[in-house]
Amino acid sequence: MGAETFVIFAKTTRMSSYKEIKRVTTHTLQEMKNRGEKITMLTAYDFSLAKIVDGAGIDAILVGDSASNVMAGHETTLPITLDQMIYHAASVVRGVSRALVVVDLPFGSYQGNSSEALRSVIRIMKEAGAHAIKMEGGREIRESVERVLSSGVPVMGHLGLTPQSIYKFGTYVVRAKEEQEAARLIEDAQILEDCGCFAIVLEKIPAKLAKKVAQSVQIPIIGIGAGPDIDGQILVLHDLLGINQEFNPRFLRRYANIHQVMTEAIQHYVRDVKEGDFPSEKESY
Ligand code: KIV
User: Fold this and answer.
1) Is 264 a catalytic residue?
2) Per residue in 226-268, pLDDT tens?
3) Is 104 close to ligand 1, i.e. is its CB under 6 Å away?
4) Could you tell me which of 4, 21, 201 has the C-alpha nearest to residue 99?
5) Is any atom of ligand 1 closer than 6 Å to the C-beta of 67?
6) Domain 25-240 in CATH: superfamily?
């Protein structure tokens, strides 16, 4: 089914009226790359923020395993479970009418073998209503990628800095600066494309290398810390909004200071309650 024909009927605020909304599909993203239109992607982990992100016109939403850091306060992405990812993903899907929703397979839910990968993916698709999944790795997960794709579920790859392997590398520094690692990364991107992945995320690699990858494959390349010469960009929503103050990598641009806005609003509320100003007569029954 082409992007043009894939429409859904979404409820507007009045239950009796329906508005036609054209959903973003994996085909839409490919068409965007083909015509040189940049793809926008952000993370979301819950209903309310997903609704805002979708309403603002984002093309794709990632229910990232960064929820492990951002929502649960873990140091790495490793602790988050499949059940927890499904909970986040189902909440996001309920808030989205237009964007493509991609869900991360968490650590430990696909590395064992391809049957385990497929079982995890089936749970995410059935229980959360996701549209696609993402897996970290190249040739080493080829069998799992192929098995999942054979079930009809679109797969997004993830190369470069792969946070689920943090203990192998021991650091979050820029990846593939050396020639050998760069050549391997280009080969891995080609392998993922040959398998049938619909797109690849490149995380924290030199901009020149990312450009080379985007030119050497036909599928969309979406970057985070991978420079401007690729097909799209993704950021973690809480970083972009300035909810998190501690994470300050060079690739991050903050578009708001929601941490400050929220702190001031909460301080105002505390003051009003302490001083007996809230609730007023008008705010009481
Ligand atoms: O989990 C995540 O948020 C991600 C992005 C950083 C690409 O994988």
Assistant:
1) no
2) 999 999 999 999 999 999 888 999 999 999 999 999 999 999 9
3) yes
4) 21
5) no
6) Phosphoenolpyruvate-binding domains (3.20.20.60)
